[in-house]
Amino acid sequence: MKKRSKFPIKLIVILIACAALFFLIRLVLPSAEKRAISTVDEFYTYEQKGDFSASWELFHPDMKKKFDKGPYIQDRAHVFLNHFGVNTFSYELGKAEKLENWRMGDGGETFPKVYKVTVTQTYKGKYGNFNLVQDVFAAEMEDGWRILWDYKQK
Asked: How far apart, in whole angstroms, are the C-alpha atoms of residue 71 and residue 57?
């Protein structure tokens, strides 16, 4: 007479398959942190190319309230390209830091989760070489990740 094992083989196979599927999904689907960094990178790629219309589209609606599209495009081109005397810039992204209950401005909407990415833009122009360092924030919305800047008066 055969003795039955306490753990059925089918159950073990199913558990191993579920664990493998879980790890495969984690490898294939990017994490929230990676998607946030990717959005910040996309924003500055557009800015670097002078495509300020496309970068403006990545703003969170609260940012779009601060800047109408037309004036934003004109201001960015005028200040960063004309005044600095450059055609483009290079940039580096720091590591993402997850923040909870963050606000864009004093008394503003609270975002339950954002990722802060420090961006260093390097300009080489008629006034010499210099870096502009800014913390940029990415918040997830239904239509994807969106860009925010910090306006708190601290």
From this structure: 14
Give me the domain span that covers residue 98: 32-149
Low-confidence ranges of the chain (pLDDT < 70): 1-7, 18, 20-30
Query: CA nearest 123: which of 74, 80, 76, 78?
Result: 80
Identify the three-state secondary structure at position 116.
strand
Could you report the per-residue pLDDT of 101-113, keeping only the tens digit for each?
999 999 888 999 9
Q: How many other C-beta atoms are found inside a 10 Å radius of the C-beta of residue 148?
A: 24
Give the CATH number of the domain where residue 82 resides.
3.10.450.100
Report yes or no on 50 lying in a domain.
Answer: yes
User: For the chain, first and last CA: distance in Å?
Assistant: 78
Q: Which two tokens stand for residue 36?
A: 């946030």
Q: Which two tokens stand for residue 23?
A: 């790890």
Looking at residue 151, its amino acid is Y
Report pTM: 0.80
